[in-house]
């Protein structure tokens, strides 16, 4: 607790006194002081350090325009409760543009409420007297803010990179969606989830030997190595939005009666890959990720968990939803082995060796893949992979492994003698719902049009009203792309970006643009 009491200023306003008797605000004119505090701050996500009498916060909100949210921070819970007894603070707390917190939950509140796609800036503004009083908290506050922004930055980086292509892919795939075909569940068979790590080469003979007792769920990258060795998977799972993902399927043979492979595509997956596989005569089964546009469409397609965007987890989750009580992972190394990033037979092997030359051999290109990030020696193999002789890993590969372990824990799969077991698992695949893309698109555009009217109203409900609107949320990844890639994107208002996103959706040829 940093406060002791309240005292009257020369203008009759109550101002808080610190526990050393010093006032937090001007004893003469706290309102004038508050106006000076708010100068130069117009909009964005603003972290105000120090609540006190809240005059400065009120002045800031009165001056702010555009999309503004204030996270006001106190030293501790007791100090926060003290400030809330002030009638002005109680009045401000009713404003949806403001949230009070204390240093103990500052990191959590920033992570939860700050969306870079929505706000045209992030700033930390300390109240000067409070900053002096709480100098001992400065290091903790800076650390918490830095960690929160690091978490948000990683997510925003992915959204700003893939936001446009995700929206395009989802719209195109939804426009062709006519319901999923019927598929068989695991029927008591062990699910073999195939990743394309280097240990897969050592597991091919085992897969051939046990083929009849397995339900094989291949990742898109592992599809080539399986076909190369004459193994036809039951399912192939693909979640990659990029055009390069089509390359996984160039070797896809014409579909004879004996080849019943079902291709499972995320709605955000590359539509060229979907069209190519469909043209060969194979069944296409769509699934949804947690992308808000896919969620908004509510097609009844199963929701696949993919951890940190890992197709191995997506394939395992699809097996789970088809009732797999036992799952074995092959090639899930989450590391490189003996200078090899992938098993033999992937599309990379075909591409690299076809372009190999004296000055740029395939080994150089494989090295380029492996050394995109710093590598370090693994002390032990991942519990999911085959035996590796000289494994190296990177931070991102180990994060993938952690999300795979977390997925096992979340769904009660225990590793026993190399097999993931969950005896209580049952089939969870959802049934199709009636879905009309024309109606969905019409509704989406109509609701976004209503949101644009909020700008003229001054967005009285505050940014949380926009963020909590499912139609606005559905295009936030695309707006993240616009904010990152448009000129002066960081300074452009949310509504300006919303107008741009709206115009993209309403263009007649939006689904066919590259």
Written overview of the protein:
The protein is an alpha/beta fold and 514 residues long. The chain contains 20 helices and 17 strands. The longest helix is centred in the first third of the chain and has 39 residues, at 138-176. It is elongated and about 90 Å long.
Task: Summarize the model shown.
By secondary structure, this protein is an alpha/beta fold.
* Binned strand content: 5-15%
Low-confidence stretches: 508-514
Instruction: For the record, give the distance between the C-alpha atoms at the N and C termini, rounded to a whole number.
Output: 58 Å
Instruction: Please estimate the helix content.
Output: 40-55%
Give the overall shape, derived from the CA principal axes. Answer: elongated
Features:
alpha/beta, disordered C terminus, four-stranded parallel beta sheet, single chain, elongated, 514 residues
SSE diagram, text form:
Blueprint: E1 3-8, E2 14-18, H1 30-38, E3 44-49, H2 55-63, E4 68-74, H3 77-84, H4 87-92, E5 98-102, H5 106-113, E6 122-126, H6 128-133, H7 138-176, E7 190-194, H8 200-210, E8 214-219, H9 220-228, E9 235-238, E10 262-266, H10 271-279, E11 283-287, H11 292-297, H12 311-321, E12 326-330, E13 336-337, H13 347-354, H14 362-370, E14 376-377, E15 391-393, H15 395-410, E16 414-416, E17 419-421, H16 437-456, H17 463-467, H18 470-474, H19 476-485, H20 494-506
Parallel strand pairs: 3-4, 3-6, 4-5, 7-8, 7-12, 8-9, 9-10, 10-11
Antiparallel strand pairs: 1-2, 12-17, 13-15, 14-15, 16-17
